[in-house]
Amino acid sequence: MDFVTLNNDVKMPILGYGVYQIADQEECESCVLDAINVGYRSIDTAQAYGNEEAVGRAIKKSGVPRDELFITTKVWISNAGYEKAKASIEESLRKLQLDYLDLLLIHQPFNDYYGTYRAMEEFYKAGKIRAIGVSNFYPDRYIDLVQFSEVVPAVNQVETHVFNQQVQAQNYMKKYNTQIESWGPFAEGRNDLFTNPTLKEIGEHHNKSIAQVALRFLIQRGVVVIPKSTHKNRMEENFDVFDFELSAEEMKKISRLDTGKSAFFSHYDPETVEFLTGLGKK
């Protein structure tokens, strides 16, 4: 496993396992146990996923020492603001059965995320969170938060895949010493990713799958990835990406797939903002 070193010297695995859309408690617990058995040591969940308790049970049952695991969760929009965020963080710790979190992110840049971040800074200084950061913060809001916060976000988790490579956003994160992390590294199969001829040709050259090439491309760009699968064989496949390297020419070919656009939604779209903030009121 390769690691990245965050801006506070905390080491984070560059490859983790995400549990988005695994709402069934038993399935989620089983999947996390499978992932840990495969070798994953970074698990990414969120308050909004409704599966923190399942993740917590899997962590306990795994038998892996706590200091070998890297656990991430995220504060949801409805828990934004200083007091609500503090209460929700304590609740996440209880559900996960943990004394501390390795990484805590603000899930979306809506509601009183400044108050949320202040609460996170307090938990960070108290040693209850090893690193804090944000998710889905576009460069404009990301820079604004950096400029007016005491602790520079260690991570910004944003949609990043071969069709939306986030080159400009990553450059700004590097400028302010924040690690980029990808959600949706496979674009959930959109734009026919799993049959893409460029990725297929490169994969055949290395005797690797399209999914492995897509992950390797991001890893070589220094992007942390958290692919999700409910199938153990796919977990194993996604984990097996450290025994080959893409050439400079192959990286260039894949870089040409970038559309510079989201495959899902844009925070600059008013209807999207109405939808997400509406979810945050539920």
Automatic annotation (TrEMBL):
Keyword vocabulary terms for this entry: NADP, Oxidoreductase
Gene3D superfamilies: NADP-dependent oxidoreductase domain
EC number: 1.1.1.-
Residue intervals of the NADP-dependent oxidoreductase domain: 16-257
Pfam families named among the record's database cross-references: Aldo_ket_red (PF00248)
A GO MF term: oxidoreductase activity
Similarity section: Belongs to the aldo/keto reductase family.
Database matches in PANTHER family: 2,5-DIKETO-D-GLUCONIC ACID REDUCTASE, NADP-DEPENDENT OXIDOREDUCTASE DOMAIN-CONTAINING PROTEIN
Protein's recorded name: Aldo/keto reductase
Originating organism: Sporolactobacillus kofuensis
